[in-house]
Amino acid sequence: MKYITQISRIFVGILFIISGFIKLNDPLGFSYKLQEYFSTDVLNMPFLEPYALGISVFVVVLEVVLGIFLLIGYKKKFTIWLLLGMIVFFTFLTFYSAYFDKVKDCGCFGDALKLTPWESFTKDVILLVLILILVAGQKYIKPIFKPLPNAIIALLGFIASLWFAYHVLMHLPAIDFRAYKIGNNLQDEMAVPEDAQKPIIEYTWKFNVNGEEKEFVTNGSYPDVPNGEYVGVETNEIDPGFIPKIQDFTIESSDENLTSYFLEKENLIMVAMYNIYNAEKEGLAKLKSFTDEAIKKGYTVIGLSASGEEAKQQLKTQYNLNFKTYLCDEKVVKTIVRANPGIVILKKGTVINKAHWNDIEDINLVEVEPEEEPQPKDDGTLHLIDNQISTKEEFEALNESQIESMSVLKERKEGDVLDSINKKQNANYTSLIEIKLKND
């Protein structure tokens, strides 16, 4: 029992420190996961969502500290019973997520290691068994050092954990495990190779055959069932196949997807604000001078946010910003950079720098050659004769006696008839002459 207890002590202590440190490196990301757990669709505890960040910091600091306490043998009863309480709670949480298929990733190891709900539950069950061994073998757990050095190490571990949590919250995670980290090309992370494994989906077809309901399983093909009346079909994903690391990243205007267009830019700065109304006011105030300097030095600057048009316009007006903010999914913007607002600098889709709004002043922008924006073609004047698109020659061939009325539109405005025709015809007419002929 003595040796089993010591092995369990080392294994549990190290695992809690590693798991806790990974989350401590990104407490904001763990708070997003807690918000998912607290939502009405999972635990139905939405009143805790505003406190998710505070709970996140408390849990991850406690996880690291308990791991340290266990390894050095500091306050063993307090430590072991707290470990037991934590693992019982985590085991319930992961079982609930797995059984009811509520949360796809428990967040146990942050973005460093993704576990399925059942894998997370299995891991917690193993830890629960090991901690129960520690409960039974408490007498074999002795302090490594004398009381004073042990207490100093425990205190230093606690202070260091708190400081590290504060540091990464005020800047960015020290280690970035996400697909948007510096050095990654977003287009490559979104790509699906031609030889990628396809998803395997099982189809269960139900048919009524001579008054009896029967099931037929295929890989997707419609079964040939003589005298069978189709009832329904159910699908079951056996293997999801290849899943790119980035799936939902888009840059959208009100009427088109501009993702590829912007990711091909030679020098692009994205200002990420998942929710404009929740963004730090001090950070928003810093955007004007930074983005103006970036534009002056030749960078293309855009905003990314899940907020609506009213919020975007209000932001632009209030802070006198000279860039346009495009639509992007809130969860994606939160993943791109752990700051609201945050800065991401890309070169042809490759992330070359990221910064928290606290560190905007530290970004060194070198002057670059500004890209020439492609000028839209000018199709000139559109001629409509009795609501039919006509050529200039057909218009000039008319004489006054044939014309009942004529109207001229010299300027295109969004939503008018000229704008509608341009969108429908994929054209860029800049003026309109509309003629109605007399009836013979």
Automatic annotation (TrEMBL):
Keyword annotations from UniProtKB, A to Z: Membrane, Transmembrane, Transmembrane helix
Q: Which Pfam families match?
A: MauE
Stated membrane topology is: Multi-pass membrane protein
UniProt KW Transmembrane keyword: yes
InterPro entries per the UniProt record, alphabetical: Methylamine_util_MauE (IPR009908)
Give the residue spans that cross the bilayer.
Answer: 7-24, 51-73, 80-100, 120-136, 148-169
Predominant localisation class: membrane
All copies of domain Methylamine utilisation protein MauE, residue ranges: 1-136
- Which superkingdom, per the lineage? Bacteria
Which cell locations does it reside in?
Membrane
Q: Which residues form the signal peptide?
A: none
Q: What is this protein called?
A: BT_3928 family protein
Q: Which organism is it from?
A: Winogradskyella litorisediminis
